[in-house]
Write a structure and sequence with these properties.
The chain is mostly helical and 118 residues long. Helices cover 51% and strands 12% of the residues. The protein is globular and about 45 Å long. InterPro entries: HTH_HxlR, WH-like_DNA-bd_sf, WH_DNA-bd_sf.
Length: 118
């Protein structure tokens, strides 16, 4: 198979890789609601460290899913928002939320899998 011959499985693997990471989907869910500042994201995601949030945001930006806007203010203000490409994931997020509303109550709670305090 030539290097450019991708199967749908290969394409899905690439798509999943863009969104994999412990916090990426939660970040994307929040940014789907509105533009957030770094500190707002940190407060909205209990348990995430500043280092991990920075790393996840950088990866999402590198993949073209979010934009980072720095304002020349003192103190500096940085806003994060979804790109139009990422907005295309909106129906997928809504479908996942609808699925969870129906089936989430049947999913056993795993110890340590809930939201942690920061």
């Amino acid at each position: 198979m030539a290097e450019t011959d991708f199967t749908m499985q290969d394409e899905m693997r690439r798509a999943f890789a863009m969104l994999s990471g412990k916090w990426k989907l939660e970040i994307m869910w929040l940014l789907n609601q509105r533009i957030h500042r770094f500190g707002e994201l940190r407060k909205a995601i209990p348990g995430i460290t500043q280092h991990m949030l920075t790393a996840q945001l950088r990866e999402l930006e590198a993949d073209g899913l979010i934009t980072r806007t720095v304002f020349a203010e003192v103190p500096p203000r940085v806003d994060y928002e979804m790109t139009p490409k990422a907005r295309g994931l909106g129906p997928t997020m809504e479908a996942l939320a609808a699925w969870w509303a129906v089936h989430g109550g049947t999913v056993p709670v795993r110890p340590g899998a809930g939201r942690r305090k920061s």
